[in-house]
């Protein structure tokens, strides 16, 4: 059972190759695969517009300026992928030695609940789509949980991907291409039950309606029903394509170029992974050293955000250096060109032409303090010159003294290229007028010395270094009549200076008549000038490129700031939730305290109630005793009444009266006797 959809981006018309097979079953899951910045978000957004479930707004990654239409990525899937990569010390860009088999069984077991939760959320819907670029590398770990799926592979021009990654993450072009190849090779190497449907991003941008319609038909052919392609026509915009690539581009990695051409033809070119991993490993090592330098610097970034921005700037600077190296390699560098044919030459350039310098001749070498002149001095010594120690030539006064004392002594004076010198001052934070004034004074000092000994002084203008010193070597050998030494002249490496600052410095010099006059005299007195004297148009072009790079960097920083703001809002929401939970816990604690008090009161009342029950029992017993006595009294009363009503009681009444009388008299007598005795 196979199905393959391919869009040829370089064809005038969109052509589809669709192979169908018999016995296909219904498929609910759509897995969108592809390298970062390849257009997987656009394809997933189109699938969602067609009717596939992607996730709720709370489940998806928020929108950022770097992708204003949204990433269409689920937070839970992203978190799961990051945990899997980080468990083996890898990241989405750090995969030089990554292999999915390195993820341990213990890690898989710990994340089993997250796998199950993701599968439950997605499979609760008839048709769902999952987009996550890291799945290219990690799909073997997800496959047991997400079965019966149709893979959709999104392919974009590797150079366009690399340029986008360079702009967003500061990754060099070679690294972006190697990552592109590794991600897509991982998709190609996996034994899919259903062969991936392949879409070219360029075709999607150029022909969105045809591309999405053909995708819907291909999905329908493999059993995915219920999608409406007409709803997705407005999702894809031509303005989404900000980067591009060409077949003749100078940035190509040979392996990636072959792989890309094979993908365009619907073929698979197996790239030797070792060559790609070596590129990635080299960058990872350099990036680790760069991060270590940032953290160990005198003023390390105070916050993680500042650290990320400093790292991004450092990476972008390395990308600029890489671009300069490529420009120089293909012949677009203006740095080490000889003086123009119309440049004025000093009289000494004619008088010394064709003469060999004697071994007894001396050369006084004077260079700026921040320029390492030792390689030049060593080369001159190897060429047969006697170079005076730098301690004897520390400034214009000592140089004039040497020339005055020894008529055979010559001088080689090195000065900075004016606009580079001014640009360095501006880069260091100097004010425009102060930087120009310092340059004017230093130039006047140099020219004052040259005017007094014009025939014996050779003036050369150099940047802080020159990547190709062979032209300078030829000029000095010809001018001084030197014997060509076996060793080649090597100069310090030129420091990188933004082209925009050099344009500003050149315009600053040309803004005043005095500085223009000094510049003209300096150029007329110069034997060798690495600046070439006429590269303003190139500088403006480079400055424009620097400006665009800075705009991209600011946009990326803005995106990072917006992302941090969103994270801050989320943190505030979490803090509010935490505060609410603390309040709930406080109320719960207070409720428990009140409950304990109530329990104590209930216990006290229970004791009182038990006491009352006891007293009530005693009272009941007393009442029963009173009732018994009352009954007994009633019985006695009834007996008395019976006796009194009897005949015998009545017959004996007179006798009782006599006896009572007698008892009364006796009692009276007893009382009188008592009184008499007392």
TrEMBL record:
Coiled coil (residue ranges): 554-588, 612-639
UniProt superkingdom: Bacteria
Annotated InterPro entries: P-loop_NTPase
Keywords assigned by UniProt, alphabetized: Coiled coil
Pfam families assigned: Sulfotransfer_3
Entry protein name: Sulfotransferase family protein
Polar residues biased stretches: 337-351
Membrane spanning residue stretches: none
Chain residue ranges for the region called Disordered: 337-357
């Amino acid at each position: 059972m196979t199905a393959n959809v391919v869009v040829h981006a370089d064809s005038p018309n969109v052509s589809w190759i669709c192979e169908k097979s018999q016995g296909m079953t219904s498929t609910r899951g759509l897995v969108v695969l592809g390298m970062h910045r390849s257009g997987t978000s656009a394809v997933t957004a189109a699938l969602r517009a067609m009717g596939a479930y992607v996730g709720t707004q709370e489940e998806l990654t928020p929108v950022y300026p770097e992708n204003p239409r949204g990433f269409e990525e689920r937070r839970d899937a992203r978190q799961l992928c990051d945990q899997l990569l980080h468990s083996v010390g890898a990241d989405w860009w750090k995969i030089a030695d990554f292999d999915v088999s390195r993820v341990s069984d213990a890690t898989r077991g710990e994340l089993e609940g997250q796998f199950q939760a993701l599968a439950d959320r997605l499979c609760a819907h008839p048709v769902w789509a999952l987009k996550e670029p890291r799945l290219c590398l990690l799909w073997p770990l997800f496959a047991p949980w997400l079965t019966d799926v149709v893979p959709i592979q999104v392919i974009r021009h590797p150079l366009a991907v690399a340029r986008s990654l360079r702009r967003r993450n500061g990754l060099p072009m070679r690294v972006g291409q190697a990552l592109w190849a590794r991600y897509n090779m991982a998709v190609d190497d996996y034994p899919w039950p259903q062969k991936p449907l392949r879409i070219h991003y360029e075709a999607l941008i150029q022909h969105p309606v045809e591309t999405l319609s053909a995708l819907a038909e291909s999905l329908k052919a493999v059993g995915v029903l219920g999608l409406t392609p007409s709803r997705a026509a407005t999702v894809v915009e031509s303005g989404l394509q900000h980067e591009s690539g060409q077949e003749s581009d100078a940035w190509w990695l040979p392996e990636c170029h072959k792989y890309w051409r094979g993908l365009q033809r619907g073929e698979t070119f197996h790239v030797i992974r070792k060559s790609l991993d070596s590129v990635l490993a080299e960058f990872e090592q350099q990036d680790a050293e760069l991060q270590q330098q940032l953290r160990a610097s005198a003023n390390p970034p105070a916050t993680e955000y500042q650290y990320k921005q400093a790292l991004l700037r450092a990476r972008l600077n390395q990308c600029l250096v890489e671009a300069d190296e490529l420009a120089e390699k293909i012949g677009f560098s203006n740095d080490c060109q000889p003086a123009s044919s119309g440049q004025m030459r000093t009289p000494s350039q004619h008088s010394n032409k064709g003469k060999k310098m004697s071994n007894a001749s001396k050369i006084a070498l004077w260079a700026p303090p921040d320029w390492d002149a030792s390689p030049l001095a060593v080369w001159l010594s190897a060429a047969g010159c006697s170079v005076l120690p730098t301690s004897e030539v520390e400034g214009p006064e000592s140089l004039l003294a040497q020339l005055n004392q020894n008529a055979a002594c010559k001088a080689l004076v090195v000065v900075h290229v004016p606009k580079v010198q001014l640009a360095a001052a501006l880069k260091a934070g100097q004010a425009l007028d102060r930087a120009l004034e310092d340059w004017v004074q230093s130039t006047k000092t140099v020219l004052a010395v040259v005017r007094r000994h014009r025939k014996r002084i050779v003036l050369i203008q150099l940047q802080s270094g020159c990547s190709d010193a062979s032209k300078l070597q030829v000029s000095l050998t010809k001018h001084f009549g030197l014997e060509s030494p076996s060793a080649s002249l090597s100069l310090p490496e030129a420091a990188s200076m933004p082209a925009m600052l050099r344009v500003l410095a050149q315009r600053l010099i040309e803004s005043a008549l005095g500085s223009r006059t000094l510049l003209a005299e300096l150029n007329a007195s110069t034997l060798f000038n690495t600046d070439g004297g006429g590269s303003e148009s190139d500088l403006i072009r480079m400055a424009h490129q620097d400006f665009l790079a800075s705009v991209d960097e600011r946009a990326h920083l803005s995106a990072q700031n917006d992302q941090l703001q969103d994270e801050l809002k989320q943190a505030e929401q979490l803090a509010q939730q935490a505060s609410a939970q603390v309040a709930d816990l406080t109320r719960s604690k207070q409720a428990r305290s009140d409950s304990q008090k109530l329990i104590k009161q209930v216990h006290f009342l229970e004791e009182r109630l038990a006491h009352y029950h006891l007293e009530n029992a005693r009272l009941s017993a007393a009442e029963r005793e009173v009732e018994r006595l009352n009954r007994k009294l009633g019985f006695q009363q009834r007996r008395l009444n019976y006796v009194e009503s009897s005949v015998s009681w009545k017959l004996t009444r007179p006798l009782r009266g006599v006896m009572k009388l007698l008892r009364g008299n006796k009692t009276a007598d007893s009382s009188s006797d008592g009184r008499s005795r007392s």
